[in-house]
Amino acid sequence: MARNDLQGTLDLLVLKALSQLGSMHGYGILLHIHRASDDLLRVEEGSLYPALHRIEQSGWISSEWGASENNRRAKYYRLTAAGRKELLTAEKSWEQLAKGIRAILRYA
Amino acid sequence: MAYRRRFRALFDRARLDAEIQEELQAHIEMRTADNIASGMSPEHARRDALLKFGNPVGMKEQVVAMDAALGMESFFRDVRYAFRQLRKSPGFALTAILTLALGIGGMTAVFSVVESVLLRPLPFQNAGRLVILHESILHDLHQFNVTAPDILTFQRESKAFSGVGGYIGANYVATGAGAPFEAQAERVTAFVFPVLGVSPLLGRTFTQQEDDTSAPVTVLSYALWKDRFQSDPNVLGKTIDLDKRPYTVIGVMPRNFEFPLDAGRFSGRDLWVPMSFTPVEKNRQGDDFDYGAVARLKPGVSIAQAQSDVDRIIAGIQASYPAKYRVQLHGYFRTLKDEVVHNARPLFLILLAAVGLILLIACVNLANLLLVRAATRKQEFGMRMALGAARLTMLRQLLTESLVLSTLGGFTGIAIAVGLVRAAAIYMPDSLPRLNEIAVRWPVFAIAFLLIALTGIACGMAPGLATMRTDPLDALRSGNQSSGQSRSQHSLRSGLVAAEVAMATILLVASGLLLRSFAKMLETNPGFQPQHVLTALLVLPRHDYSSQEKVADFYRQLHAQINALPGVSDMGFSTNIPIVGANSGRLITPQGYVRPAGDGWLITSNYLVEGDYFQTLHIPLIRGRYFDAGDEQSGAPLVTIISQSFADHYFRGKNPIGRHVKVGVLSSPTPWITVVGVVGDIKQAALDQPTVVQMYAPVSQGPADMGPLAAQTYVMGGAMVVVVRTVQDPKAMAAAVEKVVHRLNPLVPVTRVATMEEVVAATESSRRFNTAILTGFATIALLLSLLGIYGVMAYSVVERTREIAIRMALGSTRLAVLLKTLRYALLLTAVGMVAGVMCSLAMTRFLGGLLYGVRPLDGWSIGGATIVLLSCAVFAAWWPARRAASIDPMRALRSE
Predicted ipTM? Predict the structure, then answer.
């Protein structure tokens, strides 16, 4: 059974964003998800930061302080090896869930 | 990275907060900047950013909560909370901590002794492969050592052992290294040191050639090297005179080297010399099973293979015996470790079991205390649950609390244990092996920490789970009063107390048995009167006293001079004295005695005496006469005095006076000796040890008793114990006696000076120790279980205040309430006691070897334990019962 819930979805978005961006701060991740989804997905700051810290504690991403585009100190996140693996499983399980839901929707 | 942050977060919460603050702030700034870039006014841009962000403080908290470091922080919060709770009830905290300190401390102390003595390998190379060989003769000699020729046979023929070394104790008068002294030496074959695999600190050990040629070389012990040669690094090549023969020092052994390792007061050897068997020794076939044999198993050889190898060799040895011996020889071996700790093992295991019981009682007690506490805090828990605290959180807090208690108690206990072990090394009886190695080592600390963790979790689990089941509504509604929940808790607590009582019963019964054994030992008649007797060992240098006449002459003069001292009433000499053990076993044949079929050789212990030995020790004459001066004349008829048990056993109630006994078997070329007296039996070893039949002969006749051949080569009485009966304190005579000896010959060492009472007391010390320590454990167990009874009763009275008040309001008398409460306590005790007695019936037989004069199922001990427990239980329950009886029903009911 595919593990999936809202938290898992946010994790997947964050991991995917970081796999595409390489290294990015929270604000950048937020913007990326926003843009890449054509404004369809809007992640709240209130969910993003706790999620980032939780994911970091899980060991899927690591963080370090760096300078942002306009030279201000910001915390940058990047995927770890474990995170890359997690992303693969999360993607797979999302595909399954989506397939399942699509099937149900069509059935009607 | 994450770990570093987690750790830093632990100690630097402020810094963590600041970092998160900065991260979030950066986000707002970046959005503001983007907003401005997309054309908003700065104010508008900032407001939009803040608005989108939401409540920054709330979010910060959320983010902080995500950091796992918080898991750790909440642990520390629990610890702080636990400390606060404990500080609120210092009485409870102190009781719990002390209880656990006793349990864990006792366990740690006993375990470190066990670890040091039983578990640690001996200080030899690959010590597990070292074994000691034994021979035994069916029906006669059990667990004896081996004979001199058999050592050589084993060495030559064994296939299972890489080497076999022989050793036997020998005492020499040592001169030329400070004042003359009696050196405790060990004659060892060249194989001994290589078999043990220990290299000397300085120099080398013996070569086979030195062994074969009887070379005068010696290896010194560390202690002797230090004391007599001032740790001289150039000691090699120097000489020390042993019995006036100069021996060259070729080596010094390391400080911790000790061999042989016998349990006993005189185990430390001063030096080692080559064995160099004499021709007489080499030919003493099937006789003198006094030589130790240590062997090393070849790698890969199993015990069974080695045993069959030994069997093969023994069969060969037996085949070489003359047919007339008619004996069945057996050979076997035990590991050196087993050999050394064999006698101590049961005691240690018993101590471990006893202290384990105490730890269990301590745990039960703590669990009980925590249960009571949890019950009194039910309202608090109910309130917190109603306010949304997770059950798991509360379980965690209770566990933390009991872990804090067990850690505090445990560390106190470890400190106590370290002190106890230091004291134990000093006060433990000499009869225990490896005393000098006893210390608290890291495996013991590891075990202690494990115990702390286990105790904490086990004790916290019971109240924790009970609390988890609490229904918050019910807890709040019924306040402190009993409910269905607490009834089940109540029976759990009662069960725990009964279990405690059961365990205490076991210990009390065991200690009762030991106390009774001790009393029996003190009551035992040693067969002589030890009061007012001084003893000392004299060793005549062999060189100066080469003939029996010279020896006799020395003792005659000494006898006269000591007798002339003021305050001396009687004095005599003997090759051995009672109690110290180490008797020579002598093969004898009484005239007319028909050996029952299947019986083996007849063995008696043998004492050669001189002077008024019997009169001095007050060994009673039963028939016939004591020895007199006439027996000491040369050419006097050979006479002997036998003990009562000897007469009973071999002369079967007939008058033994005038009958004859000879040394050896019937066909031996030894003369018949006439029995002239029968004396009472004496205890040869410690009072609680069995005795062997006894036979005495005048020392001047000793060689003649052994037959014509021995009479020319033997000198007897070279080492004798002088016994002096004094009018005043015997200790005060020691200096005078020593002076007289040295006036006669300054080279004769006077050693082991002690009063006979001291000699007896020394052998009592190990039983005294066992008894004292087990009784101490039993007392602690008793106290702890009383505390348990008191606690449960006191709490149940508080809990049932309303019920009791109603009873009283309905007409129950105070006396009835008092009795009802006491009855409950007694019921609890009785249930525990019955269980405990059942267990002890099954367990006391393990005490077997420690008992003397009492059977493991001793009514007195069980009865005594029962009475002690019941009366103590009444005492412990008395105060809560009084409290119950003094409840004022009106006030109690009104306060509801």
Answer: 0.85
